[in-house]
Design goal:
The chain is an alpha/beta fold and 260 residues long. The chain has helices at 3-13, 36-47, 55-66, 69-81, 132-142, 176-191, 213-222, 253-258, and strands at 16-21, 86-91, 108-109, 113-120, 128-130, 163-167, 197-202, 227-232, 246-250. It binds zinc ion (ZN).
Length: 260
C-alpha cells in the first residue's frame, strides 16, 4: 500500500482531520511581468519613495489577477479530500488564495493575517478597517481613471498614523484580526481528545514552528488514536516519539496534492 493510499484510508477512518498549510504554499511575484499596468505602477512608486505604501496593495492586486491555477488546483484537491470530514485548517500563508478554493472558510484560521483588513501601524487601538475602498482608488489610478495626486495613504482615525495591512508584515501586528477564529480552533481541538484524529501537515517549514509544526507533533504524541502525515520537500523528518503514528512523505506538498 502506498503512503498516499494509507493517507486516504486514515482520512476515511478518522473522526476529525487537522490540516496545516505552510511555507511551500506561499505565493511569489515571479509572473508580475505579465501585468504591464502593475509593472508601470511599481516603476512610478520606485521613483517616488513617498509612495512606497502602495507596494503591498499592488502585490495584492497582482495575486488577485494572477490566480495561480496550480495553487488553486492543489487547494481544490485538498478540499475534495476532506469534504465529508469534520476538519479544521490552519495556514500561515497571507495571500488569502485558500479562501477562494471552495472549502469551508469558517473552518480555517490564518494567524499571520492577510490583505482583507487594515490596522493602525502604531497599534494605538485594535480596530480593523476594510481595505476595499483604498484598493478601488488605487485600481482607478492604475486604469488611468484617476490622477496619482488624488491617492492618499489611509490613516488611523484615532491617532493619525498610517494604516497598514493587518498581517504579520506589520511592525505592530494587531492579532485581534484572527483571534475569534483561533478560539474556534482551540475549542475544536478539545474535541479531538480520545478521537481518531488524522493530522495532515503540508509544506510547513521552520519559519514559525510554534504555530503548527511543534504543536502538531505534541498533539500526535498525546493522542493514542492519532495518525500524523508530514509532507515536505526538505523538512519531512518526524521526531522519534511520534512512533508508528507518523508517516513522513518527502516531496513538495503542493505537487503532492495536485497529483492526488
Ligand atoms: Zn492609531
Amino acid at each position: 500500500m502506498s503512503k498516499t493510499e494509507i493517507l486516504k484510508e486514515k482520512i476515511a477512518d478518522a473522526d476529525l482531520v487537522l490540516i496545516g498549510v505552510g511555507e511551500e504554499f506561499n505565493e511569489n511575484f515571479s509572473k508580475i511581468g505579465d501585468y504591464p499596468k502593475l509593472v508601470r505602477a511599481l516603476e512610478v512608486v520606485e521613483k517616488n519613495p513617498q509612495l512606497s505604501w502602495l507596494v503591498p496593495y499592488l502585490e495584492q492586486m497582482y495575486l488577485a489577477q494572477y490566480e495561480n491555477q496550480e495553487l488553486l488546483e492543489a487547494y481544490e484537491k485538498l478540499g475534495a479530500l476532506v469534504q465529508d470530514k469534520n476538519y479544521f485548517l490552519i495556514t500561515t500563508c497571507i495571500d488569502g488564495r485558500i479562501y477562494h478554493a471552495g472549502m469551508n472558510n469558517e473552518k480555517m484560521v490564518s494567524p499571520c493575517g492577510g490583505y482583507r483588513k487594515l490596522q493602525c501601524s502604531a497599534k494605538c487601538c485594535t480596530q480593523l478597517w476594510d481595505a476595499d475602498e483604498v484598493m478601488q482608488d488605487i485600481q482607478a489610478w492604475i486604469e488611468e481613471e484617476r490622477d496619482l495626486t488624488a491617492l492618499q495613504q489611509p490613516v488611523c482615525e484615532h491617532c493619525g498614523k498610517p494604516l497598514v495591512f493587518n498581517n504579520i508584515m506589520a511592525e505592530n501586528y494587531v492579532e485581534e484580526g484572527y483571534l475569534e477564529q483561533w478560539e474556534k480552533y482551540t475549542k475544536w481541538l478539545q474535541l479531538t481528545l480520545n478521537k481518531k484524529l488524522c493530522i495532515i501537515e503540508l509544506g510547513v517549514g521552520m519559519n514559525m514552528p510554534g504555530i503548527m509544526r511543534w504543536p502538531f507533533e505534541k498533539i500526535a504524541f498525546y493522542n493514542q488514536k492519532a495518525s500524523f502525515f508530514r509532507i515536505n520537500q526538505a523538512l519531512y523528518q518526524l521526531p522519534e516519539d511520534v512512533g508508528e503514528k507518523g508517516i513522513s512523505i518527502e516531496g513538495n506538498a503542493k505537487e503532492f496534492l495536485r497529483n492526488l
